[in-house]
Batch of 2 targets.
Target 1
Amino acid sequence: MTLPTVSELLQQDRDQWNNTLLACLQSTASESEILNLLQEALQHEPTKQSLMLAIADVIWLLSSLQSDSPSSSLWIACLQLLSSESSYLFTTLDPSLLEQAGLLPPNINTEAFFKKIRLYNTSTFYKQQKYNLLAEESEGYAKYLALLTSTCPNVEASRTIMATFHLDPNRCLDLCLHIISVSEERRDELLPVLFDAAPTNKLAPLLYFQLQESPHQPALLKCMAWLTQQSIPIHAKKLLPMEQMWSYLWGPEQDEALNELYQMKYQQDVDELKALSKVSLSGGSTAEKQNNGVDLSKLAKELAVQWLPYIMDHEESWFLLEDHQWSQLFTLFPNDLGVAACAALRKQDWWIQASKRILPPWNPEQASDDSAGSTIDDVLGHVMKPLFRIAESGCVQYDPILYSQLCRILALCLRENKKEHDSEILDRFLQTFLLPSLSLFPSNPAISHDLWGVLQEIPYRRRYKLYAAWRGKGLEKAALREHNTKPIWLIRGELEAGKSARYSLKRLSKDTYRDISRSIAQVCFSQPLVVFTTILNQIESYDNLVGVMVDALMYVAPLSLDVLGFCILSRLSGSSGGGLDVNRSRLKEDGVNVSQWLQSLESFTGEFYKRFPAIECRGIFGYLMHRLKEGHVMELGVLRTLLKTSGGWSFADYAPAASLSTTQVEGRAGSTLLKRETMSFGVHVSGAFNFRSSQQVRNILQEQDMGVILLILLSQVRNQIVYGDSDRPKPVKLIGNLYDTCQVTIAILLDFLTNPTDDKDAAISHYARSLPSLTELHNTYMMDMASAWMLCRPLLQAAERMELGRKHISIKDNLLPFISSDESRKSLEGMLPPETWSHISSMLFETFFSHSLYDLFCPEDVYNSEISRLDREVERLSNAKNTASSDATELERVKNTSADLAEDMVVQASHVDSIRKIIEQRKDSFFPSTTSSKEAMATFFTRCIYPRCMQGPDDAMYCARFIQLLHEMGTPGFNTLTFYDCAIIAFSRSLYGLTEGEAANVSIFLRDTWKLLSNLRYDDNAFASEVAGKPGCFVAANDPKFSLVGVPEASGQEDGDDVQSSSSREVTPDVYEQFYNKWHASIGATSIGALQSKEYMHKRCCLIVLSRMIDVYPTRPKTGNKLLTVLEPLQSESNTLADIRAAAQAYSMQLVKARDDGVWKEEDAATVQARQEKEQADAAARQKKAEEQMEEMKRESEKISEEIGEWRGRPGDRRVTARSYESNENRRGEDWRGRGAPPSAPSTGRSDGRYAGAGSYSSMGRAPRREEDGRRPRTGGDSSRINVSGAKRSRPPSPSEQDSSNKRARSQLEPGEEASSRGNDDGGRRRGHMRSRGKERR
């Protein structure tokens, strides 16, 4: 045998020492090695006495087994080492052995000593001693119990009593454990006695035996938990190993019982949830009473289950069971074990130390460097495993303090160390425990606020992933179908929250939203996903709920609002869970218009982020950027709405451009304030602009150059809409709408990024740093020239203002790449074909694209009109009595607006003058040749005018005004007539390939241009002052287009003088007339062809252009009459296109009115007079026919009166009496006499033949029935259908009923008698029917 080392020997307990020493003394090792080992071990003071006693016992055992053999020298040497314990040796070893070891005194009588030893052994081991046998209680146990309850128990006294009275060690241990369990305050005093009396291998079974029948089980269980933490001083081992004790309390039978009860409990909970989700039509409870619950009493009586709450304070207890077993136990006993687990967590030292850090007096400078819980990783390392075990049970709801403190600790650690943590572990903890557990605290805003303190320190991308994991595969019933993926308590909370939310939303209205908002907020505190999913479902179906819903969110917590932002993004992306909206169509069934749910969601998104600007909306912009990158543009309405509503930039949205009035179009040439006033028609809505939300949207777009990226993506994806590949072709109208939406969104976003309300220099500076150069936009990002210049134009204008020395331009470094220079103009030559620069110069190209309508045109009339309107409003508010505070605020606003507009007008007028001077200085270098050519005009139109005119109404008017400016300045090389000839023909022919927005832009250009051309045609003074002698008003005689032959209009030639030929002559009025007739005919022929086309877009675009030009075109009657003829089929009911029919009818009426107002300037007087005479004759014929009908109705009414005049009602019929009948007859006669006979109405001159005048019907108030009408007389029951007094109809009258009676009746009334006549007519008709029915019965 190999001898153990000294350290190995000292680590053993008393029993192990006996075995080891016995083996050593019997081994073949040398005596010196054994003696050295024992000698070194005895030098260790803590174990010296116990080791000496163990050596003595082993020598006694060996001497007893080998009594016949002589004593070993090794024994003698070992005994000599134990000389200090001679008193114990004298009572244990044989006297002869003591004598050989020399331990006996030299003068002792050996024979007498041996005799005393024999007497002692006899009395000790062989003599029976009995005490109080009748009372079954020995004096020894009494003394031992008295010792344990004394004030100073000690080990020596306990040993003496046990040895003297031969007490049973197990019973003594039992008494000691009992005293320790009932006297917690004396445990430390009795611990040495327990160490001496308790064998470590027998303590666990003894305790288990005591637990079986002990009346003090709780105290004993608590004592057991205390014993597991006590270590033996000698060996540094646990007195009662927890694993050893647990093996007696928990076995396979308990495992099987636990699993079985858990499955039964789980199935019972699922059945309850299914019953809860059912809708009861009987009005009773939706959840029927379930069977008796699962019987947990047997498992609850298990000693192991009862012991667990006492040992959970210790970390080693969590290793006694598997994780799923812990989860099952907490689920079955949440009130006992779950609460104990939460309490145990808060008792740990690291938790106490970390909790001190979140208290207000905490001072970080006084904290120790090694304090626990100072980082995220430390906190998560302590709490993740125990909290994951209780997550499924939801027992944390019984300890909200734990949840709140944990949130605050994590929030503090995140604020101090945002980057120094493992994000995956943190996200897993939030996803598995912290975020779902919020559902366990209903109506608790403090808990929601504490959790938001953690989540707001996390980037929104990670937060949205957490929300998605919280939502899972579905909510409410969808989650119940997939109940294995969520805890039962979470599904139950979703179902209850869904019911509460729907109950509140049913009662939500504009009048009750303040009260309902509180109940909505209470549910949102714990279940925001369920509430907002329900809200968004209703909003997508009913768009009139948007404003009310936003107002109802006034009390919702920030965490819930952030979840709503995630829900909006999920609805947009089609990933809101449940699989119900993954591939929802974003178009209606017609395949052209945006679906209702998407429109409603767009409106709600804008209003929501406007009302709550602090809520994160980067996710929306990031999603839109991703969609644009993939080529999808259906969600552009969301971006547009965010800019208009949240950003407050609705005035920049000009769509649909066809609906803009002339004042609005010209107002867009002014300042930002003028745009706001004109686009809103001067109506100011309080709260329409939220500065905070506008600034928030701008800051987000400026972060990481997101706004510029969106602009570039929009410019790229716009062309993909038209030319992109698709599995199936899209409708042309849809392509046009999407294309126009892209263009409008670009304009709004560009204006929003470069024209803020607070600091323009900062916005321009940031935009300049973000935007690539013009060359990069064109070459790298493959943008067309017009779009690239459009993005760079604000910077070019800022650079120009900086060069002019204007104020508030302090960003020179950022604008250096955009300053006009020879180098920049030279770089343009590589962007277009070389032949382009042989016809136009780069100076013209740069000048044209670098300016805007604001630089060329100051709408002074619009400025003055708005200022006058505001001044009148100031006068009205000043003269108002009892002016409220809101009126005073409005008065101040109106005054400031008026003053600002006046200042803006002065500033813009000065700016326009300076820009015009700059352009006039450059005009000589616009064209390479001073001799104009058709190629140069065509190039200028193709490269400059046409692409920019398509970008918006502002640019279309800019193009028209720029051309007029070139003509006014007499630009060398610019031929005005040649350019207009090229532009008008090209624009008129482009009607077959335009979108609705582009058609509106072309209409603005053509109207502004045609207004000038028409004025020159019909005003000789204007022609003489603006055309005669101008460099651009010469024509070449050899040009085949300008031959002497007259130019036909539409499909034929109209009257006009021939052009006088010469080699190169100045344009005379006669020559200009030929040009005018040609352009007029070109527009007319194209318009007629488009209106007769079978394509929808051709008709639509043509009507848009013609409607805009109605006050200036057509001026020739032949074209106008042809247009009226072509419009007739479009106005008929057979036209299935409702919008085309309505637009055609509107334009037809406008065209007739324009003709009557004299817009058809070439219409002769004879034609006008003949048309008026024909209209008067038609009106007279219609009046005569109406009079004849009146006479016929009167005769029929008199005939009916004669037939039923003597009837006075049946006996007992109280509805009509003789007196009432006579009074009514007299009253009606007085009415007729007062009004007199129906006069003949004079002609009104209206083309439709309608007139006012003519008296009432007959005295009976009934219109006669014509024979050809073929209808039966109306009965009394039908009178509700023709009630015209303002009451609600039971059903609408048929068209035939309206045409035959109501329309005739209305046409015969005097203007002041319409209401009374209608009432008499209705009452008379009812009385007439009643009499006829009485006659039939009679």
Target 2
Amino acid sequence: MDTAEGSGSGPNPDTEPVGAQKSALADGGGRRAKLAANHSDSRVGREEAQPGAGTGAAPRGWRSGRGLASNSSALLLKRRRLKRHLSAAAAAAGSSAAAAAGKMNSAHSSSSSSMHTRSLDRKTLLRNRQNAQLQHSDRQWVRVDLQRGSIHVHDSLASSHPRPVLCTLDTTAGEIPGDAPPSLYVQLHGEPARRLGRDERPLQIQNDFLFRLGFKDAWRVQEEGMNTELGSLLRFYAGKPITMEITERVQLSGLYNVRKGKLQLPVNRWSRRQVILCGTCLMVSSVKASHTGKMHILPLIGGKVEEVKKHSHCLAFSSSGPQSQTYYINFDSFTEHLRWYRHAAKMVSQRISSVDLSCCGLETLPPNLLYSQDLTHLNLKHNLLPADQKLLQLQSLNLSNNQLGSFPLPVCSILTLTELNLSCNRLASVHSAVGNMHNLQTFLLDGNLLTTLPNELGSLHRLAYLGLSFNEFRQIPLVLEQLNGVERLCMAGNILQQLPLQAFRLLRIKHVDLRLNQISKLVPDEPEFLRHVTQLDVRDNMLTVLDASLFPRLEVLHCERNRITCLRVCGCMLKAVHASSNDWLNCNTVSLIVSTFYRNRMENIPDGLSESKKLEVLDISHNQITELLPWLLSSGSLRKLLAGHNRLQRLPEHVERPVLEVLDVQHNQLQALPCNLFLKSHSLRCLNASANQLENIPPSSLSEESHSILQELYLTNNHLTDKCVPLLTGHSHLRVLHMAYNHLQTFAASKMAKLEDLEEVDLSGNRLKTIPTTIMNCKRMHTLIAHSNAIEVFPEVLQLMDMKCVDLSCNELGEIALPENLPPKLQELDLTGNPRLNLDHKTLEHNIRCFRIDPPSTSLLAHESVMGPAQWSHGYTEASGVKNKLCVAALSVSSFCGTREALFGVFDGDRNVEVPYLLQCTMNDILADELHKSKSEENYMTNTFLVMQRKLGTAGQKLGGSAALCHIRHDPLDSGGCFTLTAANVGKCQAILCRDGKPLPMSVIHNITVQEEYSRIRQHKAIITEDNKVNGVTDSTRIMGYSFLYPSVLPRPHVHTLPLTPQDEFFILGSRGLWESMSPTEAVEAVRNVPDALAAAKKLCTLAQGYGSTESLSTVVVRLSIGEGCCCCCCALAPSQPPPSPGLYPAPSIGLTHPCSASELSSEVSTSEMSSEVGSTASSDEPQLLPEVHLAPLLHPALHMPTGNRCALHPAFQRQMSCTPYCSGAAMALSDNTLDSEDEEPIAGVFSNGSRVEVEADIHNCQSNRTSSTEATVETQAGGITSVDVPGPPPTNLEMEMTAEGVPELGGQAEGENASERDSGQTKSFGCRRGNGSVAPQEKSHNLIEVATEAPCRKMGGYFTAPAQPDPDDQLIIPPELEDEVKEIIKQQEQHRSPNQQPTDYYDTPL
């Protein structure tokens, strides 16, 4: 491995000679002998060495502050976390112990016994872990100088904990101590281990690895090197380890008496050795080199397995060939003897010609393979074989990824070789002897350093496939003119700038791959000489003009992601043209079968397409097309038409029996579909017309009989009403129906009864009050999504046996009658956002994988009495993909490390569940720890992702996932500072901030289209496949996990920090599926007018699914209310005690009666054992309890409150924003009148009948002008919420009266010191939308009004943050009984207002 220079910090005065280091390192446990004298100056030396570590290094002594301020809840969390880690570590240790015991004779008994004692031996586990860690004195010695460090060495023969070894950057592998010093091996991310040379320096290798991973500071690299968890990324072995790939192939193993050769010879003696039956070979450990793990390999194919009669339970294993060898193995029992005989007999009888020894860490080829007669195909990929390795007669040989460094000359002597793979070996040249392999047909040299080819290669006349991708070629090799038989030429990822077509004149090449070059021009040639080319791939180049007509027999053309403005093609053989993502495309098309022109700036469809009689697929989405040609809906060949994201205002009216099966016209400006679309399109199976302006749909038939075979119908985000519901009944085969966010009020039961084949229904975001009971006729129904409606009765869908997902959140559900037996396939039940719901969920959380419900109302009441408004509120949602596999996760900690911070995250594992779950559970703990080590946002965010990479362990070696984190922070030492938002991301998860209604990207997607990333990947010679994935695994160059792709793929994130302003409204975190379905601008516009964060997150997820997304989705929406003066005043009210560490359990305080409640109850993981609020929208804000407040001071502030200046943004009694979904907090004792006092008398005339009445009043400013009005709020939990602003009465004492309808009328005054800062008395209705995002209908059931006059003296921002413009959809919703009275009050107020007086600003109330 290459070593980086300059990693140290300069000369080290304390470093002793090498001889002294040897004696000091003699103890493998990490103790020193002679270097102990350096402890006296450890602190001084550390402080002297610190400047050399870099400017970003934090001082070592900076560990006080919030990190050391612990409380009982933090200790409880640590104990639970330690308990969980112990269980996981015990399971891992047990599995490795069982694997080692499998090699023993008593494999099953040992494994069974370990299982019984594993959970009882935690003290031993703790002791072993403690021994593996460096002692305090050792750490002090290491920290003296950045030239020092430690590595952890593992034993290769037994499963044991690593032992720390102290060393310096000058310590070589030969100086690492041991009883019988074996060779030192290094292993990266679980791949085959490499033997270190005696002069290689292990600590330098470790530091180089960490620097390349992304760590910047030398002192931090030193600290990371002392962590034992680094073993999942980089590990040192004392001796050659047995790789995981070999153990996976192991069929039988154990320790038995073994004798080699003939039994008659007295020289050979019986010895106890390890024997493994692996693949098609018998592996026997070496006696002389047993400490290195050396194994003798005996191929069994074509050999013999015989019973030895003279010895009981003995078998003789013999290989085939003239120089066969024999091993005698004596088993301990007849059962083992019989088992081994049966398995080995099957191998011997086979005649397998292929042997796979890839990823075995072989340094030499097993000698017995040289005598295998039947072997023709040998795979030695990912080994450590030398270039001069002697090889045998083969037909196929794979030596890729062996770090050869030079061309293996012995392969040229294999005359029978037909296929040779030498990719990724850093070869700089090809030997001229390659011309001897006259039978070679496939020659792969991808991923090397080649610039030229030898002329002798031209003698390989049978060569048909030549792979030269990702080398350093600047021009087409001239020797290709001599290779008449080459049919496939791959030169992707080189440095070609021009393509002279004369190079292909004499060739019969059919497939040319020239991706990822720098080609800007094609030098033309006569078409007659290019008639053999059938496939041309010039993706990701710099072409501006492409004349593909020079290839008369071209069948498939790929020219995506160029700069092509003019494309010319011709020929009757052309079948497919893929020309997406170009600047602007003007194409003359011919007879095609597949055409993709998406993401261009085309305004018209190419005229030549109308002549194509065989066109089957046409993709013209994401263009600027305004009209479709009439023939498209009458074509007799077109089966799939994708025309979404254009500017279509109408579709062709002439529809004449097309064979169209898929029609996608989403994101256009359509107001209607062709009236005979369903009448004539008898083959149409899928229609997506979402995000248009449709008000109705065409009929499926003119009679009761319908020939429609439509199965999927997506009509999300239109203007459909109840009139379209009867027209759905003609589609009797409909399986998927998405009609979310329309204007539906009812769905007739008789119409639903006719849709018996329905499997998935999404009716969210409408005005439905019920789900039709006839949904029970849909026996195949497995998904019902109807959130953000006004549904009051829970449908009986849980009686359907195939039901998997039910989402009825953000509705008006009351009691639910659940069946005795839940559906066996039920995986998700979401009932959040139903404030009136009363459900005993204890029996449900153990039977449903993902069960969500609001916390108890008492917690909400108590938490809302916390003083001071919230600066943010959040909601999240998750949805599984088409395979019902939830591969995403969300993280929400609204009170992170105290009430002044918050942390939100989204994680996407693509197709794996493990990585998102690990990120969700662990990442917030890592960030909390990193905050103590650095004040720089970029440093602590970057280090959080890098530390998380090693925390993933073995799961992160082969699996990976995207991640996005957003951290809201306020510096507690800066009283006048503002909140800052820091976003970090890897992969395709992104964060978008809405500022003044416009999206502000906070994330960057790293892939090969970024020049910096592509240059870095080219430097490491990674292979980019045709789907633009690194080594065919991932299309992201920075992502969590996938450590086996290091150094091409790294976990180093993009970090973006900015201060929050009052213009910042909210930000969105979304997984890959969300941003692939909609743009940031569309996402911001979709949820800007949705006040509730949970409903906003739900809407984004539903829209993405309605637009056709089939991926797992996760969305977090965080609404902000950051004012200009909120930081200063909040600091004055900050608690004196240190803020707690993030967790679910707040520190005990006065008045605390109940622990916090989580909003999500999962049957898989108990929230009490989670180290953070994972996957929950519950607020973790720790309530600061107020002293007792009596009613008299509230009613008469002038008599009881001080007259000093008080903050206008924080009244003495005020609840949190009710748009904060499902906050959890400590319950406080509440009196009957719902104030936070325990001993006051109830107010006369106010009755407690199940409704919650809450009074809000500003009591800070007591000397205000008498002309100011009063703000008061009355809220109810029962029924809907109706609100209106009315002017305050003349200044009198605060009075409350109950009307005949039970509606309180509030009046009062609030005085302030500066009347000039007051707004005028103008009032404005503040909206009729519920907190869940649905629109409240005008009904008599809304028997309460929230009366709110203009706000008292206040500044912009904070709790009173207002949008720039009032919501146009807001209406004045009041009960009919009070309509005349309210209108009269408003009319009087308007008459008293002066002409020059401006209307008051529009303010969002807490509801």
